[in-house]
Each structure stands twice: as C-alpha cells, then as structure tokens.
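Students often ask why we bother encoding 3D structure as a string. The short answer is that it lets us treat folding as translation between two languages. Here is a chain of 439 residues written in the first language.
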Amino acid sequence: MNTIADRLIEDEGLRRGVSRLTPEKIQKVFKELIAGECGARLKTYMETCVHCGMCAKGCHYYMSHKDPSYTPVAKVSQTIVRLFAADGKVDPQVIYECAQVSYTECNLCRRCIYYCPLGIDTGYIMSVVRRLCHKLGMTPQYLQDTAHSHSATMNQMWVKDDEWPDTLQWQEEEARDEFPGLRIPLDVEGADFMYSVIAPEPKFRTQLIYQAAAIFHAAGLSWTMPSTPGWDNSNMAMYSGDAEIMSRVERAHYETAQRLRVKRIVMGECGHAFRAVYDTANRWLGWKWHPVPIVHSVEFFWELIQQGRIKITHKYADPVTIHDPCNIIRGRGLMDKLRDVVHFLCEEVVEMHPNREHNYCCCAGGGVINCGPPFKNTRVAGNSIKAEQLKATGVKTLIAPCHNCHGGLEDIVSKYELGMHLKFLGDIIYELMEKPEAE
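And here it is in the second language, the structure alphabet:
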C-alpha cells in the first residue's frame, strides 16, 4: 500500500510552516488542543474504530484510485492515530503529511459515515487535524490567503467596503432595463428577510445577484441586503481551521441581520457558507442554535413555488440531472426539496446513481478548491468516479445549487471532456419565470 509520503506535493505555505516547527512545539500544541477543544466525541471515535475498512467505498478518492491509502480509515491512521501513538511528539515532516491528507485528500463530505457500521465521522476527525495544522502555522498557501481576506475585509475576495454597494447599484441599474420598478433595497429595517450572498458573486458572478433581485421583485417580496461588512456568507476560515476568524465573520453576519431586525436570513446557493452560518460558527460562539432563523435558497424557492409566488411560462425542455451538494444534503437533508424544485422547473430529470445523501462529492468542498493550483490535479484525479457518474446520465445540463460545487464540477467536466453545462436554480427560475410586461 502506498502512503501519503509517496505523493507529497510542494506547497509554499506548508514548506514555510514546517521550517518553523520542532517536535516539542508540535507536542505542546497537540496536547493543548486535545485537552482544550476535543472531548468525548473524538475519544469515542478513536476508541470504537475497528479498522474494518468498510468506509472505503464511501470515499471518492478511494473509488477513483482503488488505492487503500486513500480510504477514510487510512487517512485517520496516517494522521490522528499516528499523533496519539507518539503522544503528539512527531517530526515536523509528519505534520506536513497530516496537512496534505486533511486539507486536500479529504473534502469533509462525510459520505463515509453512511458506510461505517459504527457511524464514525471521519470528516470531524479531519477537521481536528486541520485545526492542529492551523495552530501550527501549517495551512496550504492559497487557502491561507483566503482566510486572510476574511480577516482583513470580512469577505472572501478582498472586496472593498465601497465596491460592494457600487456592485449592487450597478446590478440594480442593469435590471431596470427589464424591470423598471426593480430595486435592490439596502439596509431596510424590519424586512421579511436579508438576502445573503458570497463574495464571488460581486467579484465574478454578478448575474446571480441580478437574477435573485428579479425573482424577488417578480414575487413581490419584502427583502433587503446590508451595505456594510457582514454581507458575505462564505467562510473559508472554517475550513482552514481558523475558528477564531470563522466565528468573527459569522458574528458579523448574525449581528447585521439583528441590526436590520429582519425576520430571517435567506442564504444564496452555496453549501459551505450555509454550513458555516447554520451549524458551525453558532456552536463555536457558544449558541446551541443560531440567533436569527436561516434557510437555504433551496428551501426558500420551494416555499415561493408552493405559495404561487414563482410562476413559470414553460418548463425547461432539455433533460437535466441533479448534483446533491454535501453541506445541504448530508448536512441539512434537503434532498427531497431540491427534487421538488427541479421537477417543478424541468420536463425530464435523470437521476445520477447513487444519489441524494449517497451522491458523490464534487471534490471542491471542504475548502479543497481553495488550496490552489498545487493541489488541483489531486482533487480532479481523485474524483474520476464522479466523472463516470455524470457521464452515465447521458444528459448535458447539470443542476448544482452550490458555488463550490460549480467550481469543482466545471473542472471535472473539462478534464474528462463530458460536454456538460452547469446551472444554478436561480439561472433556471429566471429563464423560465413569468416576467411583468410593463411597469
């Protein structure tokens, strides 16, 4: 069996970090982490895993390579088990290997839970390893740069404070050619909801803001967006292991919604952002639940459809297939609502197999896509099984309600020459919806 040492990739951030480590420093930080942040959950997993290997088929890396060193149990054995066995006192090169395994050979997709007879959450274990790596200064360069952007600007893409409202004004002006009465309302207190997007939208995908505004306008909704920091709901610091920045960003998100006194937050089509604000940062901040009700756009669109707020002129004619984003399917259970929305919009839906909670990850999740060019080939080669799954559907339109999934799937579609094009739900709703003739 190969090991991680056989396929190490050079990364400037990891190489710089490892040069500053000593076995004594590693042991000190490891012991502090285990004693201060890890409790019965980690201990239970460590003591109950019987290394049976049944988790193997749950991992897209293993299914793509058929190499036992990529199995979830092997990843645990090469990282946290190794550290415990040495009481945390290991050579710095071991931490380099732990970083590559945890950051780039595990997407934290948690699919393996469904194959483990004991329900062990390898994604959680790898998150602990990432947390250790962060505290030791061992984060892949590109992912660390993204975490720095959150720290400096409170958003993922270094969007400056004045650029954000300028972008919204620009999209409002663009939309008025089609919807003369449309507004993107800023800082409206007491609106029914605050709409929350991720920083790649004002930076690269402004059409998604346009489309959302058009849908909300046509549906006659009471909504708002904030003009100040706290608007970005992405959070790559959650995946770098920097829980301090993660919680700072999400606290701003919660407090912005509270300041505006909105009834709830509607999240755009992004899985990792939903995970951060819905089920991770709130716990780190000491809340059992989040202080403002939160729904993902999949849930929200289905509400609008049920209420008759979204009316379509016709159905999408070409056959489509559905990609299930890990963080809203395995993490929130929206598999049926997603299908309800897609079947309402589309004439023919061809399911992938397996699907729903058993669907394969896009291989961009868990912040892996932000680890940058050194690791791009690792994740694309590590998901040839997803390419096979996509190709088997025989369709050309792939619906994925998640930004990171679009990034990962586009790389797979390109690498394996699948000839597919990707759609957000908002893309299709905007295309099909009944638009006011004149205002």
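Translate back mentally: The chain is about 50% helix and 5% strand. Keep this in mind for the problem set.
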